[in-house]
Amino acid sequence: MPVMPAAQRIDVVSIFPDYLAPLGLSLIGKARQDGVLDIRVHDLRDFTHDRHRTVDDTPYGGGAGMVMKPQPWAEALDHVVSEAGPMTGPRPRLVVPGPGGIPFTQALAGELAREPWLAFACGRYEGIDERVYEHAREDLGLDVTVVSLGDYVLNGGEVAVLAIVEAVARLIPGVIGNAESLVEESHEDGLLEYPIYTKPRVWQGREVPAVLLSGDHAAIAAWRHEQRLARTAARRPDLLHPSLGGADAEVTTATPGDLPELLTLLLAAGQVATMDTLRADLATGRMWLARRSGRLVGAIRTQAAGDTLHVTAPALAPDVEDEELARHLLDVATGTALSDIRSLLLADPTASTARARTYKKAGYRPVPAGWSRQVPRHG
Ligand code: 6GU
After folding, report:
1. Ligand 1: distance of its center to the CA of 122 in Å?
2. CA-to-CA distance for 352 and 38, rounded, in angstroms?
3. How far apart are CA 166 and CA 287, in angstroms?
4. Whose CA is nearest to atom 5 of ligand 1?
5. What is the pLDDT of residue 234?
6. Sheet harboring 8-14: ordered strands across?
7. Ordered DSSP codes for 164-231
8. What kind and span of H or E run contains 262?
9. Of 372, 359, 296, nearest to 326 (Cα)?
């Protein structure tokens, strides 16, 4: 007989329990019915003892707004945890949504999805008295994480909890049917998703890109990868630059102080350069450097001329035969190019067999001056 894994338990404490009603809908509502998720919403005001069910008061030290009182929060958290027994029993991980938290990311969603028990404390007003966090950590033994959705301010944590629970729950087996669709998604590998189309092939005079109808799976995969890079560069360049830790290397743009080391690398890699040509390159184009443990192991230079981006062969240190790194440098240098670039010209007419394969895989075709590739338009 198949053994049902225990449901993930989620407790939410809020002064607006109705705000969390959407957790009864759609795939999350279904998962609750199926016993995959055990979500319990608590009203913070049930843990007050005065006639007005007061949850807030003015801040010590002055300042705008109101602060959530410690007593109702402590009793609410005690109540949630009490269902687990003494200090040694299972404990929820306490997540407190707030603009001052660590960024909520797909990686954090994955981490939270592996927790058997989560508790969310929805603050309102200016926030919760700091001693509630200390009580949760020191007296209840909870791991407390303050989490922010982004750099903007919401009125309270409830909307954030809806977002966080949705991102977490869909990673739990049994919450969404198609495990495949989990893998191929924006952010799972640090790039945004490619554009997608369905029937009809022509809609209001707009055609689906021909490559998608070609049946050429390699061409389709190359086109999609290209679209992902172009989109990420246009909309989220911040994702490309640090994620350039691909191929175990840190990729950065060069500064004048890098030039002597760069010259050594280029000469060792058999390229033609002097300090003067490099200074000129730096002034008129862009240079990307790949470092491993601080050591310069690769470089590539680009220069825009009209709608063509001229790209040098990726230069690698002689002991670094790593086509993945070469491809990575090429993707970085071309993926972050200006959006009005329509074609790429890669000056490497005498590429090695391995390097020629890298260029072909990246969508380049041999031309007399080296290798050429067209850049698709993107939104
Ligand atoms: Cl998680 N909570 C609140 N109240 N405001 C926010 C937020 C969270 N993330 C961004 N702004």
Report:
1. 10
2. 58
3. 41
4. 154
5. 84
6. 37-43, 8-14, 117-121, 93-103, 144-148
7. HHHHHHTTSBTTBS-HHHHHSSTTTTSSPPPP---S-SEETTEEPPGGGGS--HHHHHHHHHHHHHHH
8. helix 259-268
9. 359
How many Cα atoms are found within 13 Å in the side-chain-facing hemisphere of 370? 16
CB atoms within 10 A of CB 227: 21
CA 195 to ligand 1 centroid distance, Å: 30
- Going 173 to 179 to 183 to 185, the CA torsion angle's sign is negative
Q: What is the pLDDT of residues 116-151, one digit of tens each?
A: 999 999 998 899 999 999 999 999 999 999 999 999
User: In the chain, which residues have pLDDT < 70?
Assistant: 1-4, 85-88, 177-188, 241-247, 338-339, 376-379
CB contact at 8 A, 265 and 313: no
pLDDT at 243: 45
14 vs 157: CA distance, rounded Å = 8
Whether the full predicted model's pTM is greater than 0.70, yes or no, is no
Out of 149, 152, 159, 164, mutate this one to test ligand 1's pocket (max ligand atoms within 8 Å of CB): namely: 149
Q: What is the CATH number of domain 250-374?
A: 3.40.630.30
CA distance 38 to 67: 30
Does ligand 1 lie within 6 Å of residue 167's CB atom?
Answer: no
Query: Cβ neighbours of residue 263 under 8 Å, at least 6 residues apart?
Result: 273, 274, 275, 278
**Residue 350 structure tokens:** 């005498």
* Cβ atoms of residues 360 and 367 within 8 Å: no
What phi and psi, each to the nearest 5 degrees, are found at residue 323?
Answer: -70, -25
Q: Cβ(156) to ligand 1 under 6 A?
A: yes
Q: Which one of 2.102.10.10, 2.10.109.10, 3.40.1280.10, 3.40.50.720 gives the CATH number of domain 8-181? A: 3.40.1280.10
Q: Whose CA is nearest to atom 6 of ligand 1?
A: 99
Token duo for residue 246: 């691909």
CA of 351 to the centre of ligand 1 (A): 52
Q: How many angstroms separate the CA atoms of 316 and 283, rounded?
A: 22
Residue identified by tokens 């759609």 is 26
Domain ranges of the chain: 8-181, 202-239, 250-374
